[in-house]
Write a sequence for this structure.
């Protein structure tokens, strides 16, 4: 397998780890990137963008990064909090009056961002088309009562997170979350990240491949006492291959990105909010967004969890090597983006081979360990 791209000699171990992922049969196509102290030190890609292995993965190949999208949405919210448009402690209904229905008038933005709002999904039938159309899904969220006492527990809001945060953003800013990200984050940074992809970009999108155990978590959650995150509609691994999915804005999980785009976004935050002279957000606002909100159990996964305002923190996905200040988000099947402010690192990894593991994804583990071994 030929690995293409750039790698600072100091980080040669990352190239070796990436090649190892292919050699072990763990990888099909993907990329890895590292921004250290505001400078790109790794931007690598390899493999194939389609299941038939007819299209090589290229520098500008995009792939659905699933819940990695949540971390970029969290940045958008943090930017508006800094501008005084939002308050994490404020009721969502202050910005979205219809949301107060069903006894939800006291649910805060902070509770939404940390998966504690009691709205981990819908209690009424909703097909995928309704979710992709935006309004049917957010109207249903606004009308319903909480599924459990808000603030009492953490239950992952797999799809509803993005529509909840995105509708609050739209109500205050006037732009959709996808447009805000394009104009305020991706554009200024030159980061190839999209929520709502034009059809003209389809030729460079990788085909998603559902590998071993990729969808086991869906069945597990549906059998749990808190199944709604995986009902109405049920997440489909191969939805990402549909034009309708790519065109829509699903801020909980349909971001299209390169590995380098994730590394740029998180590298900017690791550096205190500026990258290459472009200031997006202040250090204090980043620290507030990354402040722990919940440490405990996720009652749908029956696993330990810790969340800031939209970011996974203190998580084993960082291979036990990142500092306690690290924050970011994983994506279904393998992708990850995170910042380690103590080390000055922004990291991005994307893949089109979705797999599930009983513990940490060995691809992520090998790549992250190689990065920290280079420091």
């Amino acid at each position: 397998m030929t690995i293409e791209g750039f790698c600072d000699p100091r980080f040669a171990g990352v190239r070796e780890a990436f090649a190892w992922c292919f050699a072990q049969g763990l990888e099909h196509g993907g990329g890895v990137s590292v921004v250290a102290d505001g400078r790109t030190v790794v931007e690598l890609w390899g493999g194939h963008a389609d299941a038939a292995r007819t299209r090589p993965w290229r520098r500008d190949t995009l792939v659905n990064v699933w819940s990695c999208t949540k971390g970029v949405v969290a940045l958008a919210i943090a930017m508006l909090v800094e501008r005084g448009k939002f308050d994490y402690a404020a009721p969502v209904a202050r910005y979205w009056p219809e949301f107060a229905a069903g006894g939800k008038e006291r649910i805060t933005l902070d509770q939404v961002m940390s998966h504690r709002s009691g709205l981990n999904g819908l209690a009424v039938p909703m097909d995928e088309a309704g979710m992709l159309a935006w309004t049917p899904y957010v109207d249903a969220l606004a009308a319903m009562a909480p599924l459990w006492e808000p603030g009492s527990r953490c239950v992952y809001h797999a799809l509803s997170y993005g529509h909840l945060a995105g509708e609050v953003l739209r109500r205050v800013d006037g732009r959709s979350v996808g447009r805000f990200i394009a104009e305020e984050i991706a554009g200024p940074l030159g980061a190839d990240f999209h929520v709502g992809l034009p059809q003209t970009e389809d030729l460079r999108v990788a085909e998603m491949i559902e590998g071993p155990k990729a969808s086991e978590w869906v069945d597990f959650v549906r059998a749990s006492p808190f199944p709604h995150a995986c009902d109405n509609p049920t997440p489909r691994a191969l939805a990402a291959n549909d034009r309708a999915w790519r065109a829509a804005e699903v801020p909980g999980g349909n971001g299209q990105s390169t590995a380098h785009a994730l590394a740029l976004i998180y590298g900017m935050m690791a550096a205190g909010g500026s990258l290459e002279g472009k200031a997006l957000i202040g250090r204090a606002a980043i620290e507030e967004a990354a402040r722990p909100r919940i440490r405990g159990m996720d009652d749908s996964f029956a696993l330990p969890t810790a969340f800031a305002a939209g970011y996974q923190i203190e998580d084993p996905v960082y291979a036990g090597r990142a500092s306690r200040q690290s924050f970011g988000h994983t994506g279904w099947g393998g992708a990850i983006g995170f910042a380690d402010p103590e080390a000055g690192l922004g990291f991005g990894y994307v893949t089109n081979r979705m797999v599930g593991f009983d513990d940490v994804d060995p691809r992520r583990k090998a790549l992250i360990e190689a990065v920290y071994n280079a420091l």
